[in-house]
Amino acid sequence: LDEIVITSSPTSSGYRYQPDMTYMGEELQKRSEISFGEMLNNAPGIAMRSLGSTPARPVIRGMDGDRILVLENGERMGDISETSADHSIALDPLVANRVEVVRGPASLLYGSSALGGVINLMTTDIPDRWDKGSHGVFSLQGATMNKMGAGFGRYTYGNDKWSVTGRVAHRQSSDITTPDGVIEGTSMNNLDASIGFGFNSGTSLGGTSLSMANQTYEIPEFNDDPNLGVEIRMQRVALQGRLGFEKEGFFDKGQIRFNASNMLQQEIEYEWLDNVRDDEVALEYEKYAISSTFTMQHKPFEFFDRGAVGLNFHGHKLDIRSIDAYTPGEMRMNIGAFTFQEIPLSNKMRLQVGLRFDFQHTSAISDDIVSENKSRNALNYTGSLGFNHRPIEGLEVGGQFARSHRNPSVEELFANGIHLGAGVYEIGNSLLKDEVGQGGDFFIRWNSKYIAIEMASFINVFRNYIIFEPTGEIDLGSGYPIFRYTGDEARLFGGELSTTVKPTENIEVSLGTDYVNGQRTTNGNEYLPFIPPLRFTASVEYDFGFGWIGGKIVTASKQDRVAPEEDITEGYSIIGLSAGYRLSKLGSHILIVRVDNLLNEKYRDHLSRIEDRNFPMPGRNISLAYRWFF
Q1: Is the pLDDT score of 1 beyond 50?
Q2: Using a CB cutoff of 8 Å and minimum separation of 24, what contacts does 501-507 make?
Q3: CA distance 489 to 522
Q4: CATH number among 2.40.170.20, 2.40.30.10, 2.40.10.220, 3.40.50.2000, domain 6-629
Q5: Residue 2: its pLDDT value, please?
Q6: In degrees to the nearest 10, what's the CA dihedral of 270, 273, 278, 280?
Q7: pTM across the whole model
Q8: Where does the pLDDT of residue 317 fall: very low under 50, low under 70, confident under 90, or very high at 90 and above?
């Protein structure tokens, strides 16, 4: 109950008003994967949208795209992973030292579009605490399923006042192997690096970092010609900064953060002719982005506890260059002001109230699709009301009611053409209106020496919910399926239940289930597309002090609650085993061996975007992960 999730509270009070979770240290190492989508997949309420190894992105409670914010150290990253299934998160999982997940609306703190939740990828690129002298971390990873190899190293040196750090990560893999064979066009080669500086003057703590990421990965080609392929190349440079300070007065603590980035991404169409590869840039994205937040905390007054007020700015310019571009570029600017307050009613009960106002300007950059600059201006508000009750030791009950808001993207408004990397023909709708959501979250946590239980439920009702759905038609020129953006009233509801039992100090048994139902509330209550199926998980682990062994089974039900032109996906069960070894000599060492899909089960994930899911997911995989802290 005492774990503080920084992402959900600007005051770090430790009180929760919606479900959240944190992965760090050994638990994060146990989840080591090739992407954040795979790392968080099967966590309570979290599924994975995938199109090969690299472009795998988390889905929270059936919501995808920019309804889920993926942050880097609390700020928007400036990549385009939210826009399409073929775009990846511009950070390697080896780099993160802490991952925080908030399930449910988070628009109050992070602005328009955070309807489904927030995933905050936290790194030490800017040191915030350090020991004197030298320390660091070194990691290696390997996997058999795609012949993946990865390495990561970070070195930090500090004294009483300042610290410098640097890190580099490299990951390379071949194509994915399934029980049916190899999925051609799923290899990848990624490189990440950063240098950073931090300082501590006693009353202020801050620093800056400069990072770069290069990703090259293939996308499964949506035709039968083995000589044709699609490759995506992405380069990103980012400058981050953070300054926290304390002062005298009513507003006694503050922080400012920023993340400024430039990203260039190319979709390459290649062809092999007489053992010579011919490359052609089919589509090019270039994005300049900045995200910054200024927060001031105030002392308790009247019936309010510590609270916060803040300003947030984020904006970007996205140029899309191609004679066959399927969507125009975009200019977007958002300015928001918010307040987050807590009201203690007793030492066991407190309320949370919040309010945010946003002004957003969005304009399409004229091209062959949009012949003139078209723009939208919107002034919106977001509010939340929550409660937290701790009636007895170990029991926590909380909930939140929130209003959220999201503006349609230029892609949703004006897309009209072939999206090569995603393998679809996209059609936008210029008449789409702003999404407005109203919803509630409720959770109960019980934590004792021998048992921990968490139950969470949610309901969200949307006006003008934007739906990306298959039409069942095929574009005659390309042979790609046609997908259309439409707007409708919609409702999503469901919940998660997880239980952990420790019959002895060494044995831990965990059970869990999650469920999402998404439907239109007009047009005959049709189901929404790409909603995860009902899932069950069970695991057992025996910890013998210097290591552990364990096993896990994940069962997904048949997903037949599908949109009119969406395929049904059969249910499946997959089994995994894991073992780990700890050693404390010349630092701290962790060695983890894991077997995924032990029985080499042939199955299909409902959210996979590979060829209408006609390819199964990866087969049996043996992975090895080693990490040394020194």
Answers
A1: no
A2: 501/450, 501/451, 502/449, 502/450, 502/451, 503/450, 506/542, 506/543, 506/544, 507/540, 507/541, 507/542, 507/543
A3: 6
A4: 2.40.170.20
A5: 45
A6: -50
A7: 0.94
A8: very high
